Amino acid sequence: MHVYLFTLPVAMAKLKLYYDLMSQPSRAVYIFLKVNNIPFEAIQIAIRNGEHRKPTYTKITLFQQVPVIDDDGFILTESVAILQYICMKYKLAEHWYPLATPETHARVQEYLNWQHANIRFHGTMLFRILFRLPQETKQPVNKAEAEDCRERNKAVVRHLDQYFLKDKNFLCGREISIADLLAVCELMQLHVVDEVNIVHQNDRVREWFSRVKDRLGSAFDAGHKIVYKVHDLYKSTLKSEIARL
What we know:
The protein has helices at about 25-35, 55-60, 80-90, 100-115, 120-135, 145-165, 180-190, 195-200, 205-215, 220-225, 225-245, and strands at about 15-20, 40-45, 70, 75.
């Protein structure tokens, strides 16, 4: 009599993503998971309601920020680290986070380091000046600060054009990478406050933006559904209300 021993396959724990789609880095990770068909449990953390400060979330991350992933007990913060981890853990296409070619890898790393004090900082500041501060303080927009910030964002777009893109289809080479994904999510923050013309005025950056959006497909719109709604609300109501302050 033969006895056959076998074990049933153990289901892999689904990746958990803690996110808020008003957060640029959250959108990048959310879109990336969808584009690459990686199953995940989406757990929304509404920053506007202070959910990131609740004790239950603080147990997950002391930083009280989004995005955060929990991959079967492995907790990771910071969008750049999360995207890099996903690329390597799930063995995604090399173009997303190039490792084999030192020069291309270095270009992606260059952008990832450059972005924080440039595209992210200045885009967030314009959003804050035109949207958040007037709502929080009930004070009118500081027009001088807003115009100065617009000029800084225009400079960022010029740098994308003249340094990163030049004659390439994407920021760091011939193929899309996580640098392009992070960049478009940052620039979409300008769309919320009806300032995306800063991007559209530059032909090469406008074409690149459209190219990246096409490559991301339906995941792009899924990740920006809240941005579209807030933009429509801002343009139809909030912009005029803020102007009357």
